[in-house]
Amino acid sequence: MKKTKPNIGTATKLEYNQLRWQCPTSIFKFKTTADINPLHEIIGQPRAVESIKLGASMRAKGYNIFVTGLSGTGRTTTVKQILESFSDVCPDLFDYCYVNNFVDSDKPILLKLSPGQGKAFQTAMNESINYLRRKIPGLFEEESYHQTRKKITNEYQTQERLVIENFDAKISKHGFVRGQLEKDDGTVQAEVFPVVDGEAVPIGDLDRLVTEKKLKANEAALFKKYWQAFHEEIYDLARKGMKIMQEYRAALIESDKNFAKELVSAVFADTLERFENEKLQAYIGHVKEHILENLHFFIPNPNQNFAKNDLIIKLEESEIFSIFYVNVILDNSKSKCAPVIIETNPTYTNLFGTIEKVYDNRGFWRSDFTKIKAGSLLSADQGFLVVNANDLFQEPNVWNKLQQVLLYDKIEIQPYDSIFQLTQSHLKPESIDVNIKVIIIGGQTLYRFLHSYEKGFKKIFKINAQFDYETDKNETVFHNYARFAAKISVEENLPHCDPSAVAALVEWGVEFAGSQDVITLKFSDVADLIRESAYFVSESKKKFISREDVEKAIESRKRRNDMTDEKIRNHIVKDTIMIDTIGSRVGVINGLTVYNSGVYSFGKPARISANVSVGNAGIINIERESDMSGRLHNKGILIISGFLREKFATKRTLSLSASIAFEQNYSGIDGDSASAAEIYAVLSATSNMPIKQSIAITGSVNQKGEIQPIGGVNEKIIGFYEVCRERGFTKEQACIIPSRNVKDLMLSNELIEDVRKGNFHIYSIDTIDDAIELLFGLEAGEADKDGNYPKQSLYGLVDARIEEFAQILKPKPPKKEIDKQKGTRK
Asked: Is the same domain home to 380 and 459?
């Protein structure tokens, strides 16, 4: 860039054509972006792309990827594109199913099958059970079944009858018969009764009969003797009858099993042949055994004379047959290559799965293996899972659980509330071995925190893919901006851009990046600007987006967000916030600050004042003393002390107390970009030389007096320019900036025009000395070999004042010493 020769001291006055870089439209050879190919590849992220490809290719344990960078730089899109490029990678995928454990129902069995076999096995099981539900009832209606059942019944009835007849014959020999006795509480029990005169008599009535001479005493004694034995035997008779009944029922069940066994085996024969999985075949064996043990499940009539479980009878039919259900929690039947799962809501349940609970028909919470649900981690098995870090930390314990999965390569599915022990799940499904590559997208600050303080983080996230927010400015990038605009227009059915619009987008990208050497890679913001520009096209009913539309969109965006900016500017113009833009003042200078409202940044001048006095306190930071100063600002104040010591304390101590304040600052301040302005304020207050209030300055300084670059240079210049414009130009108003910030200038066309007309000026400096003549109207002054400055230079005046302070602070000799000195003179 062309620079004019120094015209005031050594400050360089910038020409208007240095204040903004303009993109030449001649480099674009199309009429509109409809004529070019839309952009699909990744721009300006070689470092990140290389890291992601490395991490995605490494199958060794722990090579998960943590992607860092600013949002809007295309992190998610880039990750997805790279992972999809691994479509030719086809790992061994699996279907996962949970089935009932007939040995221990609290521990559901996991079946790991080839892709597509999960649904196929589920269908086969459903068909088999439904077939048996249709066929088994008919099987038990066949004549051969009833004949067999009748034979068994007759056999056990005969056994029961013989037992009773033998007992009756035995007691009859001794004059007893069987009967029933009603007790006092109304219950009836089996009993044996002696027969007296042809009537059965309760054993308790024998003594009365003896008294009434109806029974001899020896006969009564004999009855009592036999009754004692028979009374015990009648209970044994009941036990024998119960045993016979149990054997009868067992015989019926065994008969039913034998009768149905052939049918059940035939039904599952095809399933056993189709699925050559040892664990599955063992499960089928348990299924067949359970069916044969519980054939009453398949009989629709509850009054059938089968041995039934009372609890089962009360259950609904759907609950009864759910134990045969195959719960396919992951179906890879349509998956051919490594899955890429982007989880946008990584809650505990969505990531790791859960075990749902439902109310049963009795009003109780119920859960079983059919309620086990998989999460996105299992869906990503043998592939990739992409999550956003901010979302990942929204729900407690999700991060800890994820670390466990990645450390041990196992997923244990449990409901979320179980980890807090609010409820205890009785189900313990088999854990699932997984092989997952996790890609977390987050910020650099979070990554550094986890890397430094989170135990185990380094073991599981060995790759950090860093996304840049800017790239070097060149024609290739400009053309990619055009292709990106084409992409947005095609995908969202928006008007296309002409070359002037693309040039305006490129210029905005350079301005957004904050330097003429680079351009932003935050394409989400570029896309928003294209969308907003398209709105103004529709308003004007044009066909294409032009520069005018882009500039309207930029101005509209500013207008939507500049309320605070406008109010502060109005306060300055009305002198509520005291800023002078004409005249000169001692110890007062216009610094430049930047405000950030979150979506909008703007600059404003700030009055910085300094007072000095005799003392040894050095530089007092009033903001710090009032707890309104940040660490960087505090550092800047300390650097000022170092600068002053080098300039004025080589022959004596710096006998100076100076206070510095940002006037009317009520919200705190940080940063060191005002340190140059603060030095000039201290020099002015010390020398009693006034500073021109028509000039504002920004710049950081080191102890050697060298001016360092600062941030927000465009906002700061525009902030002071707008105040001067509102109050009226004097043609003396100007901003002083660091020379190293000249390359960052991307100022508004309106400001540039006023610079061209001479209404406003911008100067750049490299050292503190460079701006002294511009600000004070006299030279800085250069020390001679003895360290003395020219008396009429600024530094000479400052040095003389500090010497004056030193003399005041110099200890006075005792009175006797003074008298002695006077006597000597005489």
From this structure: yes
